[in-house]
């Protein structure tokens, strides 16, 4: 059989019908099946646009699940052949992929890891993370790995503020998209972990604290983003006002009530609801990637339904669970493409890291004094200081705040990490998903959980020997949080 034509998988019964995929690892005693493109909700099109996900229709016979489903409607990245890289886009996008070991499961079942892709709530897809790599490096270790998709931009986050229960507002339907996953695929598996990366790890924390999903899983992994990040949520009134502005831009300015507004918006092509991170809201066609990460055009809101209370109130009620979270050393560089080594470039950085502050000028002055010092704009030290401020503003401060707030109310362990170097699959090998076992711990330096006394205690993965650090980025992030608190 040709290498690019794997044999069919076994046939598996899901909640809504039988599926058959491909056996992507089909040699040896640790073979792995891949089921790609399993619907976990009815297509959110027509009357279902802007509504909570509904169950998919059952199907007769065996459904072929051998390739990724279309990705969600989004704005392609400039200069990339997105369709060739990640496939076509469609409003009909609520599908998941399951990569599962073929050998007999242990008595307690295989652990399950659910990966929610990142993308600032406006871009991304499951196909970006591949299939054969997941099978060879994760599923072959005895882990069931699930990747999912959810609605993006206004299709996922349009809000009318009046509340989902009352009038059918979209509010945070993307969050409900993800919460429906558990109702679809039953492979007789018992342990559920969640992992992911970048901004949509903010979602991981919602699922940990939301009463709708808190008990569906027992561990969480947040990489480069949490619900404590400044850009994770906005008020319902703010998101509703933004949605009304969007409707006006699409030509919908007159409507008697919310239902009429939604009915008119359902007549508009789906691609019109995509959102770009590369369109600056106030600077013409100037790309301001970092600013758009802080002041997002669309993002979740405290809708009174999926998130019925404040994050702090929900956290206090949520089921405590072990948490692994962290960032890379240079998160800020991801958001600084084309940043100029000039005084104007520095001012642009200061402008968007203080966008949500009421005392912007005072905060800019203190940030410069604390982080830039005497460095000239063209000095590498100045660029590095800017990257640090951007990283803290958008990602790192949220992680430290998550650690501080969570360790104060639970005894389950919380681990914080910093990646300074890509170390390959050996890190995954250091963990037994079914529970800790010293015999399989190949970390050369023990990883200690954070404490109430030191929520910044972190494990640093370097190109040399890993190490424990008492300070997160030598105290930089804590200083940023304190400056922001004084001027917000």
Automatic annotation (TrEMBL):
<dbReference type="InterPro" id="IPR029058">
    <property type="entry name" value="AB_hydrolase_fold"/>
</dbReference>
<dbReference type="Pfam" id="PF00135">
    <property type="entry name" value="COesterase"/>
</dbReference>
<dbReference type="InterPro" id="IPR002018">
    <property type="entry name" value="CarbesteraseB"/>
</dbReference>
<dbReference type="InterPro" id="IPR019819">
    <property type="entry name" value="Carboxylesterase_B_CS"/>
</dbReference>
<protein>
    <submittedName>
        <fullName>Esterase</fullName>
    </submittedName>
</protein>
